[in-house]
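Quick start: read one record
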Amino acid sequence: MKYNKKIFKAEFISRPNRFNAIVKLNEEEIKVHVPNTGRCREILVPGCEVFLREESNPTRKTKFDLISVYKEEKLISIDSQIPNKVVDEALRNKKIYGLEDYNNILREKTFGKSRFDFKLSTSEGNEYYLEVKGVTLEENKYAKFPDAKTERGTKHLLELVEAKKKGYGAGIFFLIQLEDVNKFSPNDIRDKEFGEALRFAKENGVDIFAYNCLVNEDEIKINNPVEIIL
């Protein structure tokens, strides 16, 4: 998926709050928007190289979004708006193993008290709810989610179990927003309840997907499935 907007290289200085960061662009310190409310403390460190996407909305308070960051030699996408777009593209191009038969793709559909990212259906009328989570936390090629407690994420998992019990297909998709990863696990240290809910969902038939991505300065696309360790 191409960004189709101008991309600029900058140096990260600080993150005064979860919505904004201070960066140095062309020797000038400016405020930019961070489209990710997660901590990202392991990757957004002073002096690291980041990439900015220029936005044209005149009503915005900031001109740029901080969309990716280098962690040593690894380029990591941190844009939380990107995973759904990447998965949508992958679904339409039949790139996700096990979901190739679903040819009707709807976004943001409600089941119970949750709104899931996708509702899929086949020509035969089989329906499937899919929730997508973007993953940016990685160490030694091992990705984990979440990087901070997520009660909403746990709620989604329990609702997926209910969808499965009512005869629908149900799955959760972890899109790891970097390439150099070969394993994925729930981050029990940061959120024990989410890890327990993920294992409970698996025991009750909810599918779990984890894929890494190819990330460039101006593009991100789905790559390969990685090993899931629960």
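Residues 7 and 46 are 20 Å apart (CA to CA).
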